[in-house]
Amino acid sequence: MHGPSYSEALENAIDRSYDINLDMLKSRNLRLDTYNDYLVGTYPPLKAMGSLNAEQLLSQVASSVDLYFHIPFCAQYCTFCHFAKEINPPPQRVERYLAALEKEMGWSEAALDGRAIETAFFGGGTPSFLTNHQLKTLFDMINTRFDLSKSEVSFELHPSLAKQADAADRVSTLLGGGANRFVLGVQTLDRNILRILNRGHGVEEVIQLVKLLNEMGADNLSLDLMYGLPEQTLRSWYDAIIGLLDLGIEKFNIFPLMFKSTDPIARQLASGRYQFAGAKERIIMHFMAEYILTSLGYRHGPIFYWTKRTQPHSVQQRRKYDSWNDNNLVPFGVGGFGYMSQCQFYNEADLDRYLSRVEAGEKPVWRGSALSKDDLMRRTVMFALRSSGVLLSRFEQEFGLSMETYFSRELETLRSAGLVSISNDGVLSLTAAGILNSGAVSLLFFVEQCT
Length: 451
Prior knowledge:
By secondary structure, the protein is an alpha/beta fold. It is 41% helix and 18% strand. It is built from 18 helices and 17 strands. The chain has helices at residues 6-17, 22-27, 91-112, 132-145, 167-177, 191-196, 203-215, 234-245, 264-271, 279-295, 315-322, 351-359, 373-384, 392-399, 403-406, 408-416, 432-436, 438-444; strands at 64-71, 73-74, 86-87, 116-124, 152-157, 181-187, 221-227, 251-256, 299-300, 305-307, 328-332, 337-340, 343-347, 365-370, 390-391, 420-422, 427-430. It has a nine-stranded mixed sheet with strand order 9-10-8-7-6-5-4-1-11, sandwiched between helices. Strands 12-13-14 form a three-stranded antiparallel sheet, with no helix packed on it. Strands 15-17-16 form a three-stranded antiparallel sheet. Helix 1 (6-17) crosses helix 10 (279-295) and helix 4 (132-145) runs parallel beside helix 5 (167-177). The longest helix has 22 residues, at 91-112. It starts with 5 loop residues before the first helix and ends in a 7-residue tail after the last helix.
């Protein structure tokens, strides 16, 4: 695919980067340090949650729901991963976990009966770590309980699947089970960086798996790419984007490396073992990707998502960010987080505790919080700003309050810093600077006890 040259993309990105006043944003506490800039996935956040009666989650289940299935097994420990996982567990451990998943599904089966399943997402860990037989078992137990025939069913794949002799059989099982969207974690096409990240695959496996998926008719494919990786240069970032465009990829998840103190990569940053991009260079990488993709007809969806197709990047992302509080996310598995009956919650994050509680007949809720009206308003703003924005008239209709009045202090702070704008038709959206500082924007809407 013919795209902008490296020098053209770099020059444009550098020019755009001058519009981001880092010093001003830092002085107003609207710019987070790279190692503290982590995107909020739940509100209230985990640290602000307490104990929660699981039965409360079934009191006001929405008419349509989304399902999440967590598969916590991997063949290797990627240095940037912080999700619940075990490395190369014995087969009996996996079988025990699948049995627990089935038992956990039974806990909410009656409450979910008759609800439309809009999306189902299989994440991890590495869902494609499962053998073909285990995948069949997983989908059989799910399809017995839930009708996924009209759902978007997303399944995360690791490129190392291409090295398995039965890769085609596993993909066939996934397609037969109902999977109709695949997310492939690539991160980079730089072989040295893949080694540093301990990804367990090379560039060849990415190419092979994309080819296999295309041959088998799995055409709804999105690839993950990350910038700010150790030893990543502006040139290697450009080459990764162009290399994947040459494979005909039409959907991307492009996001910056985010650090958590418990991850090996955070310790590498602290020790200076590898060279990491600074704040300015990360901004340039962001604008390089934007320029390349925009020039080739891709459009920006939620802040990290790009698609060349006319339909949304995915139903899952639209539901997550734009349906506000009228959707329910039901998690199954260790470490899964969900939102049900106006409660935000997490399942047990320790696998042994998760197994013990499920096998004892409990819903394995670890921590949670029932959301007040104020919480719901803050959650709505944080999530909607990452996608199509906040329609002010919808906010007032939903909550009976003017957003511009209720959040007047926050909006004045963000508008004066150039991080948000309000369109003529009354939509509050992030600006280019706001997208780059979305973590700080979200934190501004936190109440004091959540910070």
